[in-house]
Design goal:
This protein is α/β, with parallel strands linked by helices. The chain has helices at about 10-15, 80-95, 145-150, 150-160, 235-245, 260-270, 280-295, 310-315, 340-355, 375-390, and strands at about 1-5, 20, 25-30, 45-50, 55-60, 65-75, 115-120, 130-135, 140-145, 170, 190, 210-215, 220, 250-255, 275-280, 300-305, 320-325, 355-365, 390-400, 415-424.
Length: about 425
Amino acid sequence: MTTIYLKQHKEESLKRFHPWVFSGAVARVVLDAAHESDSPEEGELVCVKSHAGETLGVGHWQVGSIAVRMLVFGADRLPENFWDERIRAAYKMREALGLVAGCQSQSSDNRLPNNTFRLVHGEGDLLPGLIVDVYAETAVIQAHSVGMHLCRHRIAEALARNVPQVKNIYYKSEDTLPFKAPIEGDKIGYLISDYQFPAPLGEGQEGADEFWSLENGLAFRIDWLRGQKTGFFIDQRENRALVERYAKGKDVLNMFCYTGGFSLYALRGGARSVDSVDVSQKAIDLVNVNVARNFPNATNHTAVTADAFEYLGAQKTMGRTFDLIVLDPPAFAKHRDAVRNALRGYQRINAKAIEMIRPGGILFTFSCSQAVDKEAFRLAVFSAAAQVGRNVRILHQLHQPQDHPINIYHPEGEYLKGLVLYVE
């Protein structure tokens, strides 16, 4: 195995079990005899040692600011049953949380059927670069590193052996792998499957039940083939349940609604009206399908395809206001260089929303940008409130749910930030 030697005193973070080795910490690389090139292949397993030669662990080599993502510490090779052990441990934790099919969801209000959960959350489950989401009988794998891409078949086999309800395993990494990496093999497609691809939305519902998933008793059609991320934003499950608590009798606006998660919870919570807005027509189509499945006689839901800023501007011109607004935009900053512009975007969209909240109304506002920390996000929202000149109080500070755990040795894993505001 290729060996990576660190510079002096750069081993301390690994001794504290932080899973990243930065490129600036690498002193030299000693290739194994099998190498024909003069550098490690991206994604290969490497052994990391201190400057003095102490074995620190094994991880995946990659090109970029993070040179190695660690898989094990204190060993010079992976255990033979490594993938099975890690998948079993992740599954056992979700069982303990009551998220696995056949268990009861630990939502704040109800114990309702749930078969939608994140099974593997990267560093939070000691598998850096790997995401696995489960939708009923289907697991969707996303690799965020070449190392995990190369291991996709072993991961699928471990899932099939250790997750009883999973019968289909879909691989979807075309948008998550490093752009310039020399990647061989398909980045998308079924690795294990009991059925064929579903018909495109709008070509009839025959067989569609195979692709429905339950979250706290609500049914969602999951489009992992063409949808964003793995097909659904599981990380807002508990925050959606909180919207349900506040929705009764309110006029609700769900901006950046995607497939309507917050909207369905608001409808179940007894909202007087719910407007769902997204720039994607495909997302709006799924919103309508989901509402029709759960509330077939609903007359108080409207779905609109529109740009968020343009929509809010038009509603303001018409004098429309709402009792409850949800702002859950896509990441405004995907890297550090974009943070300043992202904060301006958060301030702008929150100012528009605060203007349109009725006195005594509530704003749920979120940032999923890992590059924007919670203090910076809170300052952007504070600036928006000051700009509008209304009294605003924080009712809740929200974050990602239990199945998106944060490794205590990797605080960077805390990415979802949310505030629930009461607006006078």
